[in-house]
């Protein structure tokens, strides 16, 4: 009987800790959605071409496609 109570307490603690980690992961994912900026050289190194003269100054193509060039 005592072992069951201890086991139940351990499971409850693990479940609550898991909920805390889920909240942290969600907050991290939200931060990644923020707009990012790359330098013209980073854009070129990633295989793209900085479109500085066009509206928005974005990197076209490569790994930084769609990111704003700063």
How does the SSE layout of this entry go?
Elements: H1 2-32, E1 37-38, H2 40-45, E2 49-51, E3 58-60, E4 68-69
Parallel strand pairs: 1-4
Antiparallel strand pairs: 2-3
Write a concise keyword list for the protein shown above:
two-stranded parallel sheet, 2 helices, 14% strand, alpha+beta
Question: Can you walk me through this structure?
Answer:
- The chain is built from 2 helices and 4 strands; from the N terminus they run αβαβββ.
- It has 70 residues and is of the alpha+beta class.
- The strands form 2 sheets. Strands 1-4 form a two-stranded parallel ribbon.
- The radius of gyration is 23 Å and the shape is rod-shaped.
- Residues 26-31 have low confidence and may be disordered.
Summarize the structure.
With 70 residues, this protein is of the alpha+beta class. The protein contains 2 helices and 4 strands, in the order H-E-H-E-E-E.
Strand content: 5-15%
Please state the overall shape, judged from the principal axes of the Cα atoms: rod-shaped
Specify the structural class.
Answer: alpha+beta
Strand runs, count: 4
Strand order of the largest sheet: 1-4
Multimerization status: single chain
Low-pLDDT stretches: 26-31
Helix and strand element order: HEHEEE
| Largest sheet: number of strands, sense, barrel closure | 2 strands, parallel
Please give the alpha-carbon distance between the first and last residues: 65 Å
- Taking all residues together, what is the mean pLDDT? 76
| Helical fraction | 40-55%
Number of helices: 2
CA radius of gyration: 23 Å
